[in-house]
Fold this protein.
Amino acid sequence: QVQLVESGGGLVQPGGSLRLSCAASGFTFSWYAVSWYRQAPGKERELVATITTADSTNYVDSVKGRFTASRDNTKNTVYLQMNNLKPEDTAVYYCKAVRSARNFYWGQGTQVTVSS
């Protein structure tokens, strides 16, 4: 069956780094763009980064220069390298694989907490 599974979240101090993974199964992953979203308590879900099927990337301004999205289609996995983390990066991070407006899948989320 179709699955998207995020991993790599955790507790990190300000200035630290984490690498999130989004592992896909049950569909042709290379045909899908993948976006990372995050949702902090009491806030709306926010688009953070997107990596296309051609490996083009886009980022929200608040993470530019700190976060890097990449993909390895041989492993059906997309990564989000997060450096110089700030307390305001604290959120549940989700990946979404998208082929069209009606053809997409969400992962279950992974918690990232940035705190001293």
